[in-house]
Structure formats: C-alpha cells, structure tokens
Write a sequence for this structure.
C-alpha cells in the first residue's frame, strides 16, 4: 500500500479535468446525416459544414475508416466488443434517397482529406465563406449487382461483374473527368470515355454521366476520382498527378492529389 | 429500452439511465478514442469526458434524439483528435520534463514521479464512480464551480453535493492507495 495524501488526490483531479469544451454547433446535423436521417436541407447544411470545418470532416473520416476496417474484418466483428464500431452507414437505410444522402456525405469527407488544389478560389469575404467555390461538386456511384441496385458508399467492396453508373452534382457549370486508379498506379478514363480532356458539364444535382463501367477481377484498393475544373483539362494534366498520388494515411480512403487547375477533386475509394 | 428512449431518459436526468447509457456506450466510445490515441489512459480520459459531457450537457441540446449515437461518436473522435494534437505540441516543447530537470516541480523530482505514477490509476479509479459523481468531480475540479452551482446543474442541494464530493474523494483515495477495491458504481 502507498499512502496518498488527500491534497494529492485533489491536485491530481485539478490536473485531470480540463475546462469545459464547447461542441461544434452543427454537430447534430452532421450526426443526422451520418445516421441517414437528414432531410434535404439538413443534408446540404451538413455537407456545407464539412467543407468549412476540418475538425468535423476529420472526425467523420475517422469514423468512416473504423467502419470500413470493421466491415472488412467481419470475421472478428462481435457486437459490444471494445474493438468494434458498427457505424450506421453500413446498415441498410430505409430508403434509397437516404442512402444517397449518407453516401454523398462520405464523398465529401473523402475529398476533404485531399490537399486543396492550388488555384482553388475561395471567397474570404466575412460571412460568405460557408460555400467555397466548387463546394457543391460531388461524385456518386450506383452499382447494379445482378438484379440488385444500390448506391455505393466509399470503401464498399465491388465484385467482378458489378455494373457501375456515375452521377455528379455541381453548383456551377464547369468541366469534369472521372478517372479510375488502381493500386499499381494505372489510370483509366471512365468519363468522358475515349476523349483526351475533361468534358463540359452543367450545374445540377445527381446528374447521370453517360459512361460507366463493368468491374473486372482485381484486389486491394481502387479509386474513382472526379476532377472538376472551370476550363477543360488535358488528360495527362490529370492522370499524371493521380498516378503519382501518395497515400495520406492507412487504408483506402486517404489519397493526396494535387491538380493545379482543378476546382475540386473528389476521391471515391472502393475495395476489391 | 431503445436508444432514442434512453436519450429521452437522459434528458430527464434519470440516474439509472445515466449508468446504463455509460455501460452500453463505454466500449464503443473508448474504441474510437483508442483508434486515435492508442489504447491506454489518454484514450480512457477522453472517453470518460466525452461520455460525461454527453450525458449531462450535450443531450439537453439535442433536438432529435435519434442523432444521439452518431453525435456521441463525433464528440469522441473530435476530442481524441484534439488531445492527440495537444500531446504532439506538449512533446515538442516538453515543459514538464524541462521543469523536472530544473527541480522546479513542487516537492522535487520524487514527488513529480509519484504523481506521474498515480495519474493513470486516477483515470481507472474515476471509471468506477457513478456518472453523476464523475460529473460533480469534473465540475468541482475542472470548472472550479461552487457546490451550490453544481447542485443546480446536476440536481441536489449544496450540502448533498458537498457529501458526494467528500465520499468520492475518499473512495478515489482508497482506490489510488490500492488497498480497497471500489465497487463499480457505488458512489
């Protein structure tokens, strides 16, 4: 036994507790979106907030990483174990629309892991910074597996034979290319197929792209990368930085891509 | 009790709901913190504070109880990341080690080493108190509130809060001395 003086206990307690911390005011709306419970307006608020709040974006990405690891290691998954986090976006959402909302949120957070491309314009006027230029640029992925259709979530496992459809959202007109990257660094232009530069797009929400793909055999991490820009970008100006992209952390979700003339780069990781 | 119903009970200040919520959520919240900070007392501290602040503070601001589970996870992840950043900053300038080397810590290096050994155990001992007692200790020693104000926040007269603090200090001391096992949730 080691005698502990009462004043020592009080001193330890004084050191142990930090002053109260204020929580982010938008945390509830982000939580609703993660649960797939946000309505359209709340979802837009959550997405806007994640673009503006790196702390929340990093927290969402952290939780997403845990969920992906848990899903990839289902054999070790036991409810109630200290090592398991079962996150809501791995549950079957009640409606496809809600699944799309949760998915779009994760697209945003994956994108936030990227180093901001040089030349991205941000409105820094007081009160106007909540929607950075390109902030509405999103990529969503739909999958048809046999007769079953669903909205893919970042980190989902794709199987050989899956048919992939691509959808984009953009707050402004611009140009877009969607490029596939595999673990070896090989790139394939998915949209616009057969072209040498990105294609013009109109502003809109969840607009279908004419090009998609059928999944072939593969293994490990792969990425679908959407490059949004104001002006058309030549293919090598995009595939060069993408092929050279470095992992920003463990797992499939973190890629560091810098494309100087891009307005926004979105990364959608998948597992094979 | 469903998750949303449990949140409603927490909003009402139900002490058995507080204990149940803590027991049901501890493993998940700790796992999030440990994924960022590594397993150990740092992760346990952040998990304790996130759970306590959720049960006694954040839950009252929630407009949609069904958001509660994800809200708590986000709280834990944000706080663990902040703690991780503050640890890196501290390591960069390691003021504590510098003052230890200079002999500036009260009581000298031996007292400092004794405190360093007790800190991880304090986290473990605090984990044995009931959520309300932990919250009271947090408000007393973290926010430095008067007993009367603490009573207004968590429920109870200043005399009751005074007794709760006295009992909790005694139990923590016993636990730190390692002589007496503190029954889980006794205080």
């Amino acid at each position: 036994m080691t005698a502990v003086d009462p004043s020592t206990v009080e001193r330890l307690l004084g050191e142990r507790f930090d002053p109260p911390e204020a929580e982010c005011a938008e945390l509830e709306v982000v939580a609703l979106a993660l649960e797939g419970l946000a309505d359209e307006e709340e979802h837009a608020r959550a997405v806007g907030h994640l673009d503006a709040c790196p702390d929340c974006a990093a927290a969402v990405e952290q939780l997403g990483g845990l969920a992906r690891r848990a899903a990839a290691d289902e054999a070790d998954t036991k409810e109630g174990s200290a090592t398991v986090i079962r996150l809501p976006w791995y549950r079957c959402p009640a409606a496809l629309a809600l699944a799309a909302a949760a998915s779009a949120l994760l697209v945003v957070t994956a994108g936030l892991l990227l180093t901001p491309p040089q030349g991205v314009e941000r409105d820094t006027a007081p009160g106007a910074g909540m929607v950075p230029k390109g902030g509405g640029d999103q990529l969503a992925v739909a999958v048809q597996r046999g007769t079953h259709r669903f909205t893919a979530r970042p980190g989902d496992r794709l199987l050989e034979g899956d048919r992939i459809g691509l959808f984009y959202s953009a707050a402004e007109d611009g140009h877009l290319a969607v490029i596939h990257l595999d673990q070896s660094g090989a790139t394939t232009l998915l949209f616009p197929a057969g072209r040498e530069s990105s294609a013009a797009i109109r502003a809109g929400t969840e607009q279908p792209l004419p090009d998609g793909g059928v999944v072939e055999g593969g293994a490990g991490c792969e990425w679908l990368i959407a490059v949004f820009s104001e002006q058309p970008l030549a293919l090598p100006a995009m595939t060069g930085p993408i092929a050279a992209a470095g992992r920003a952390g463990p797992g499939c979700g973190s890629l560091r891509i810098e494309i100087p003339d891009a307005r926004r780069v979105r990364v959608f990781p998948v597992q094979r | 009790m469903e998750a949303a119903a449990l949140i409603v009970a927490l909003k009402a200040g139900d002490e058995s709901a507080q204990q149940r919520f803590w027991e049901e959520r501890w493993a998940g919240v700790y796992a999030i913190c440990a994924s960022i900070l590594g397993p150990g007392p740092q992760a346990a501290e952040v998990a304790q504070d996130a759970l306590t602040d959720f049960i006694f503070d954040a839950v009252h601001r929630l407009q949609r109880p069904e958001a509660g589970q994800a809200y708590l996870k986000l709280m834990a992840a944000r706080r663990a990341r902040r703690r991780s950043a503050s640890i890196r900053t501290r390591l960069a300038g390691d003021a504590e080690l510098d003052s230890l080397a200079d002999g500036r810590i009260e009581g000298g290096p031996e007292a400092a080493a004794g405190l360093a050994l007790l800190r991880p155990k304090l986290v473990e001992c605090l984990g044995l108190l009931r959520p309300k007692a932990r919250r009271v200790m947090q408000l007393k020693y973290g926010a430095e509130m008067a007993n009367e104000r603490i009573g207004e926040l968590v429920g109870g007269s200043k005399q009751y809060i005074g007794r709760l603090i006295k009992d909790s200090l005694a139990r923590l001391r016993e636990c730190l001395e390692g002589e007496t096992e503190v029954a889980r949730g006794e205080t």
Remarks:
- The first helix of chain B runs from residue 3 to 11.
- Chain B touches chain A through 51 residues (CB under 8 Å).
- Confidence is low (pLDDT under 50) at residues 179-186 of chain B.
- Residues 130 and 185 of chain B are 4 Å apart (CA to CA).
